[in-house]
Amino acid sequence: SQEYLNLPVVPADTAFGIMADFEADPHPNKVPLIAGAYRDEYGKPWILPSVRMAKERLDEPTHEYLGIAGSPTFLRLAKELVFGKSVDNGQHNIESIQTVSGTGANHLAAVFLARHLRPGRVFIPNPTWVNHKSIWESVGVTVAEYPYFSPVTQQVDIGGILEALEHAEPNDVVILQACAHNPTGVDLSKSQWMQVAEMVQRKKLFAVFDSAYQGFATGDVDGDAWAVRYFAETLSKTDDAAGICVAQSFSKNFGLYGERVGALHFIAPPNFSTQGVRGHLMAIARAEYSNPPRFGASIVETVLGDETLRAQWENDLDTMSSRIQKMRGILREELEKQTEKDWSHVETQIGMFSYTGLTKEHVTQLREDFHVYLLPSGRISVCGLNEGNVEYVARAVGEVTK
Ligand code: PMP
């Protein structure tokens, strides 16, 4: 007789589910504030001019396999982008491997660390990008949360972070979002980063930076990399150096979402041989997908390796981040007109998302009565706003919060 496998129903992914509902909604005024993907002032996907120019140069791209670790040129430029031009590409104990975008970089780090560092726990922010939990659970590491955000002050809960990490054990992993924290849009200040770095060092933790918004957050690629560079400078050069890795995504800052461009940069602590790290990362990649996608990486290396294209790209980052900033300002103004409440957090938060403070009930009502779609957590993707819909959204929020 046939035995059936026990496969209980898995709940559908929340964000992708709401996006499908949005697509199916025939209402003419519907507004999508869900997806973490940039939209231009007409609500359309935007191909960065720098990316378009790079594609023209690659008029007959090759379809050959890349090596297991990916394109060496791409990796050198990707590493310089995170750590700065002064990073010593030869001697520094950084191993880099191309990945299937930021998700793949987070996953590769998790598989490697679960296997070779064997942390007791991984500490992830509460709240955070939903995939952090899934990725670490899938490699069998116990997930603990550190409180990240205080809804009362609308600020980083630095006391809560330090208190939680005080209970961590040596070799535990801590996930840190490098900038433009998803979903809150609230980042640590420099002095708060220094406190966390000191804690990571003292408790001998392994820091995994998730860098998905470099340059997209503020338009300034170096400013957005400050925390990563501070950790790399101060923690990796001492005798009892902490291990650090950076999961780098090019989805948002190049608008290459579907091309899956990313890298994992691994700064080995003294008890890890750099060669060993490289070999094992490649062995995992080989067994999982053999070699990374080529096309998107060739676009990124063409842009970053050419002065003119790179200048255009920085311009493009400015176009995206300033449009978002402008929408934040207008949304705040309109909300304050509608509700006579303080909505300054909408303007001061950075990056793609805003944690509005709207409740689940507000979110349901916004969707049912106004066809405005956002996540149940109250997170909106500011990219979905434009001059054609921002007043409508503010009026809708005004109605549901009356
Ligand atoms: N980390 C964070 C914090 C993110 O917000 C995202 C994208 N939503 C990612 C990683 C990964 O995205 P991708 O796999 O497209 O690079």
From TrEMBL:
What InterPro entries would the database entry show? Aminotransferase_I/II_large, Asp_trans, NHTrfase_class1_PyrdxlP-BS, PyrdxlP-dep_Trfase, PyrdxlP-dep_Trfase_major, PyrdxlP-dep_Trfase_small
A GO cellular component term found in this entry reads: cytosol
The top EC class is transferase
Looking at the record, the residues that make up the Aminotransferase class I/classII large domain are 29-396
Q: Keywords, A to Z?
A: Aminotransferase, Pyridoxal phosphate, Transferase
| Listed EC numbers | 2.6.1.1
Q: Extract the signal peptide range.
A: none
Catalysed reactions, as listed in the record: L-aspartate + 2-oxoglutarate = oxaloacetate + L-glutamate
Q: Transferase as a keyword?
A: yes
Cofactor(s) required for function per UniProt: pyridoxal 5'-phosphate
Q: Which domain of life is it from?
A: Eukaryota
What more the UniProt record tells us is: In eukaryotes there are cytoplasmic, mitochondrial and chloroplastic isozymes.
Concerning its family, UniProt says: Belongs to the class-I pyridoxal-phosphate-dependent aminotransferase family.
Assembly notes: Homodimer.
Query: What's the protein here called?
Result: Aspartate aminotransferase
Q: Identify the species of origin.
A: Penicillium steckii
